[in-house]
Target: YbgC/FadM family acyl-CoA thioesterase
Amino acid sequence: MEVCLSIEVRSTEIDVMGHVNNAKYLEYLEWGREEWYNQVKLPFDEFKAMGVGTVTVSIHIQYRKEAKQGDRLTIQTKPLRCGKSSFVFFQEIKNEKGEVVADAEVISVTIDLENRKSKPLPELLRRYFD
Model:
């Protein structure tokens, strides 16, 4: 299931070059993943009840085009693949013209909240990746 989140670039997200600071894109991607979890009815409380957490372990991001203050961006998030305890999202950030501003593959792992070790993906999550 692909989920989209629309945002507007704020002045506090701009760096000295006059465009969105590279670190902000990571934040945008996180907002997109949080929206995905909420849309599929798997908010953090649901994971917590199962004794499971999710941890981002790798983000491979490509910056394609600059974004500036006032731009409206759409963050698209979709499940790509999964392993035993890991899962991968593909995310794209597009501007109003539909141009890709950045894209990324984000790898996360499910962990046991008590012992902080990796744990197999819960079926409630796995079904979106199979």
Summary: The chain is about 20% helix and 40% strand. The mean pLDDT is 97. The CA atoms of residues 7 and 71 lie 8 Å apart.
